[in-house]
Amino acid sequence: MSLSMITKDRRFWPLFWTQFLGAANDNFFKNALVMMITYNSVHLMGMNSAALVALAGGIFILPYVTFSATAGQIADHYDKAQVIRVTKITELVIMLIAAVGFFLSSYGLLLVVLFLMGAQSSFFSPVKFGMLPEILNEDELTLGNAYIGGGTFLAILIGTILGGLSASLPGANIITSIGVVVVAALGIWSAWYQRDLGDNHDGVKIDYTFVKPTFEIIKRSFQEKKTLKAIIGISWFWLFGAALLSILPALCKELFQGSETVGTMFMSTFTIGMGLGSIVCNKLSGKRVEVGMVPLAAVGMSLFLLDLFWVCTNWNYHTLELLSIPDFFKLDGSVRAIFDLTMVTIFGGMFIIPQQAYMQRNSDPEYLARTIAANNIWNSVGMVVAAVTLMVLHSFKISLPHIVGLIALANLLFAYVLYRFYTEEMWRFIAMGLTKLMYNLKVEGENIIPTKGPVIIASNHVTFVDWLFIMAISPRPLRWVIDHIYYNIPGLKILFKHAKLIPVATKKENPEILEKSFKTMFEALDNGEILGLFPEGFLTRDGKLRKFQPGIKKIVDQTQAEVIPIVISGAWGSFFSHEGPGVFKGLNIFRRRTITLKILPKMPADNFCFKDLEGQIAKNYCDFPRTIEDGADFAK
């Protein structure tokens, strides 16, 4: 990740630092308030400090439900750079009111300020994320989101530390008041460097009644299937995160008996892990949007949170005074607790960043800010649900460790929902990981495969894992055609079905299966998907190309889809080929072979000939060049 993007790139750095300072200030203010409520044992409106902290979480995100729809309309209508400047000036005014609240130790007023900060953030968020596709190229989206995500979590870390430290120092109210005002002023400075983008869509009508546009935008969020999946996943993350963050201060004080510094360390660990997760996500994704890692990340989050639950239930230390950080780490289980929380949040970064990029990439560009606003509304609903659920659990005297366990189990169940959302993408991501681990893949012509639209990929068939090679280099999932015998293997059929593989048989074997497979292939291409085929029909037994079957011609004639030939070379002789001792025999699995995938130019549908396809692949096949099983001539 090059730092020039956030230091020199005038498209991006003003936005990055403006959101960075905004996130830092949000958490500076919120964490100072939460620490003061928790460690001063504040009671207000008949609620104890733990319930007030949960209420504070709900108060901050309630404006997202109320104002996000109108905020999205404003962001889609006006110049986003100008909207950012207005929101930052508003932030300064709100922080001046907060300074009065801290000076007077008025927790009621500070909760009102918390609501106002949530309102300001609800108007800033659609602009921030809606601007990314306008100022960045598509292959920069994941990197841009990783920077925004990583920067946000670093800002949260800094704000959390500043809030915790300021709350624990003598003169905490004055120090906190000055701090939040200064950070707000710095945000105005960075916002003024953002280049104007111009008004977007004059046809967008802004409805300041708030209620009507909210229901309209919620209704529309159900219409785009791909963005809806991302919205559901992101909203679950904020429900999960809000619940976990709300109980961390009480967990530190009441269970681990840690001081304010230990509480700040736990909150900081949360944000450090999220930042690291953003970096890991970018490394694994490269220039792609890899939502396939999301279900796996959800499982990782749950497993480490369950281990934290185990640590909490076995924590039996009791002290008369709250522990400092050095004293805390002298106790058995302390390092394990911090490690578990770090891993939960690293997987959390891998969970949310791909889905944000996926939502931006698949949303209607003219409606993007409103899509993000709809996402904010659903995120807010998730966080409100988290706050209400925690208040109910507290009222039933459910212990903090058991709340941790319940969160982990709920997230594990939701991991299955995500698996069904992103089944094909997950298997493609796994394929990419396995092939990079076992093979050294060299790709020629990688940019030939389009990111959108119907296309048929046709390749020679050398090993049982050729489909893995191609899935690993494809920018999106493929619908693979597979022999019906393999498709019906017990135990694997359910996985093949989830991955949307298409079983096929010869006309002699089962004409009904053959006809159904053609119908499914036609539908897949009509829906703009990629179809993966091995035109030879069978795995080579001697390394040479077999005669191509004419079925691909029928598919092309019916759908008018382009064909992209891919030549796999270097795989003959590997563990999964029939060379030598035979498939799955010998020690070749331990040799990291170099496999070359040469992607040839597209073959248009209007003059497609499967013999030409056969000839093109044969001429570029390096293991047995210009040979075929029956010695047929190739197209020149």
H/E element sequence: HHHHHHHHHHHHHHHHEEHEHHEHEHEEH
CATH topology of the largest domain: Growth Hormone, Chain: A
Number of domains: 3
CATH H-level superfamily of the largest domain: MFS general substrate transporter like domains
What percent strand?
A: 5-15%
Number of strands: 7
| CATH architecture label of the largest domain | Up-down Bundle
Class from secondary-structure proportions: alpha/beta
Mean pLDDT score, rounded?
A: 86
Distance between the termini: 46 Å
Stretches where pLDDT falls below 50 for ≥5 residues? 626-636
Going across the biggest sheet, name each strand in turn: 1-7-6-2-5-3-4
State the name of the first-level CATH class of the largest domain.
Answer: Mainly Alpha
Query: What is the gyration radius calculated from CA atoms?
Result: 28 Å
Number of helices: 22
The shape, in one word, is elongated
Largest sheet: 7 strands, mixed
- Summarize the amount of helix as a percent range: 55-70%
